[in-house]
Specification:
Elements (H helix, E strand, L loop, with lengths): L5 E6 L5 H12 L2 E3 L9 H6 L1 H28 L5 E3 L5 H9 L2 H15 L7 E6 L2 H11 L9 H21 L4 E6 L9 H20 L2
Parallel strand pairs: 1-3, 1-4, 2-3, 4-5
Length: about 210
């Protein structure tokens, strides 16, 4: 078990992953890895025509996240430096299993495992669970143009997919500890006490893990 933890924040679109990861990185004075989103040249086209642009979109995300996490292993974990990320690499499967079909999905799975099986995995995942109404509110509030026309059925299915994904990670990555945050009740942006509690719980968990190393 590593004494300098790798922490990931996860949740469906609009859950507040990047916001929480950024706040925790500042609070704990640790480095942060942020996924590339708006820089993806296929994102707008994807939301207009999922079937046409899903493979290009997913491959762009996979290659960028692979490179980021490869660098994370070299720059932080190997040098015993704690780091927090606003995603878990598993999210590539969450999305691709929903957007890709047939031969493309099979090819993507093969490439995914080839690239990611030996990448560093988080010691702790903060999973922000939120319902459709909460996610839609936050998506509207952050005003990303390409997200405003998102199919609500797609987002609703994504919520279920994330629940299944966290259950799968819990089984297949037993050394990873998953902490669930109720995004419907906990507002870590507007409520300082809510954020302080999350930060305190995380620090205590890290301390406990170090003590048992």
């Amino acid at each position: 078990m590593k004494q300098t933890p790798f922490i990931a924040v996860e949740g469906a679109i609009g859950a507040g992953k990047t916001t929480l990861a950024t706040m925790l990185a500042q609070e704990m004075n640790i480095s942060i890895i942020k996924e590339i989103v708006e820089e993806n040249p296929f994102l707008g086209k994807f939301y207009e025509n999922i079937d046409e642009w899903s493979f290009q979109l997913e491959m762009f995300f996979l290659c960028n996240r692979y490179k980021q996490l490869e660098d994370t292993g070299l720059q932080y974990i190997a040098n015993h430096k704690p780091v927090i990320s606003d995603y878990h690499i598993y999210k590539n499967l969450i999305f691709s299993e929903r957007t890709l079909k047939g031969v493309q999905r099979d090819k993507y799975r093969q490439i995914y495992h080839l690239l990611t099986d030996d990448l560093p995995k988080p010691d702790i995942i903060l999973y922000i669970r939120a319902d459709l109404e909460t996610l839609l509110y936050r998506i509207k509030k952050r005003e990303r143009t390409f997200e405003q026309s998102m199919d609500t059925a797609y987002l609703e299915q994504l919520i279920l997919d994330y629940e299944e994904a966290m259950a799968s990670i819990a089984i297949n990555e037993p050394s990873t500890q998953i902490i669930t945050i109720d995004g419907n009740l906990i507002d870590f942006v507007e409520n300082k006490e809510h954020f302080a509690q999350i930060a305190s719980d995380l620090k205590e968990l890290i301390h406990e893990r170090i003590q048992h190393t």
